Amino acid sequence: MMILSSLYQGNRWLAAVGVLMALSLIPTGLAYLLDARQFNGISVWIKPMKFQASLAVHLLTVALLLEFLQEEKRTGRLVFWLAMAMIGTSLFEVIYITYQAAQARGSHYNLATPVTAALYSLMGIGAVILVAATAWIGALILRRPARSPVLAIGAGLGLLLGGILGGITGIWMGGQPGHWVGGMASDAGGLPIVGWARDGGDLRVAHFFGLHMMQALPLLALLLGRLNIPQGRAWLFGGAALGTLVTVATLLQAIAGRAFL
Fold first, then answer.
1. Distance (Å, rounded) from C-alpha 30 to C-alpha 22?
2. How crowded is residue 247: how many other Cβ atoms within 10 Å of its Cβ?
3. Please, are residues 126 and 171 in contact by the beta-carbon 8 Å criterion?
4. d(Cα 59, Cα 23) in Å, to the nearest integer?
């Protein structure tokens, strides 16, 4: 109940759409169980499920961490429109990806027709807006924290770096002909759950690590507080540096055509 209250207090619109994204996994999961069609070597429904889950976590994380922003800023016009931008781009991406999956067609890297090429470009623009809004909210929290300095730094730094690193790796990935480098252009036989390629580089790895800084750093801040570890800020900045290093290293690894594992 405490988490639900924090989500609602942070931003009820982000929380509501985040929950809606999570609930959409139910019909998509049923489709996965009943529909045997494949695309790129895996079920057509795996990609929509990944994006529904990822965007649910993203929106709910931002809603939760907004509690660390001072109330007058949290309820102000700027945060409202940043939240609306995140919601709009997230809904567009999930709806289009799910629609294309239902047709057994690709959404990303689909330049087959002028329409699919234009929609792919719109997805790229939407993704940039999503991560930019996330980073902006992180910067606002760092500038005007409402609660414990270490927790606020973890929240703000996580959103800021998650937005920046997720954006950089996403833009790089979107500018390539595919997310595979040096291996077969197929998701079959990828790592369990994440599906990353085993026979070559996969640009999704760095994008994953960069984007999920927005969860890792707040959790690190919470752990530091619970364990009452001194110099929490130093540990947080160390964690941020390590996360950035891992993101850059896995991006270079993928560009070189080497598998993550």
1. 14
2. 25
3. no
4. 13
How distant, in Å, are the alpha carbons of 81, 86, 206, 226 from that of 157?
21, 18, 18, 19
Range of the structural domain that residue 62 is part of: 1-147
Query: What are the distances in angstroms from CA 105 to CA 81, 94, 99, 222?
Result: 33, 14, 9, 42
- The count of other CB atoms within 10 Å of the CB of residue 45 is 23
Residues 177 and 255 in one domain: yes
Q: Which of 248, 66, 228, 231 is nearest to 156 (CA)?
A: 66
How do 42-43 and 201-202 pair as beta strands? unpaired
Kindly give the interhelix angle for 2-23 and 46-65, rounded to the nearest 10 degrees: 160
pLDDT of residue 230: 84
For the segment 32-55, what is each residue's pLDDT rounded down to a tens digit?
Answer: 999 999 999 999 999 999 999 999
pLDDT(243) > 60:
yes
Same domain flag for 163 and 174: yes
